[in-house]
Amino acid sequence: MDNSPLIVNLGLGNWIRQLQTVGYETSTFGKTHDYSYNGAYPDKRNMEGYQHELGIDVIDEIPGPRTLCKLKSYLHQEIEKARLVNDYESNLKEKI
């Protein structure tokens, strides 16, 4: 089965918001499936506004290994700074 679109009614409460109401700071790190990706945005960070609406305070999301060098993210930014994008892509091609 292919990825199905995720539809969340932001007007309804959720467990993440419940944590916030009792004083917790919420966060997500790594690969998430909080929304559907259709290729419309080249930067995972563009979806942080939506994730904040879900109740997530701190976000550091990454794409999966096959799209890591295509989609921008905080991790991609670090890989670029270290000048390792080409090495990562070459290594990935050897494994797939």
Structural shape: elongated
Mean pLDDT: 85
Question: pLDDT under 50 segments (min length 5)?
Answer: none
Along the chain, the helix and strand elements come as: HEHEHH
Short description:
With 96 residues, this protein is mostly helical. It contains four helices and two strands, in the order αβαβαα.
Describe this structure in words.
This protein is mostly helical. It starts with 14 loop residues before the first helix and ends with a helix. The protein is built from four helices and two strands. The longest helix has 11 residues, at 85-95. It is elongated, with a radius of gyration of 16 Å. Helices cover 34% and strands 8% of the residues. A two-stranded parallel sheet has the order 1-2. Strand 1 (27-30), helix 2 and strand 2 form a beta-alpha-beta unit. The protein has helices at residues 15-21, 48-54, 74-81, 85-95; strands spanning 27-30, 58-61. 7% of the residues are buried.
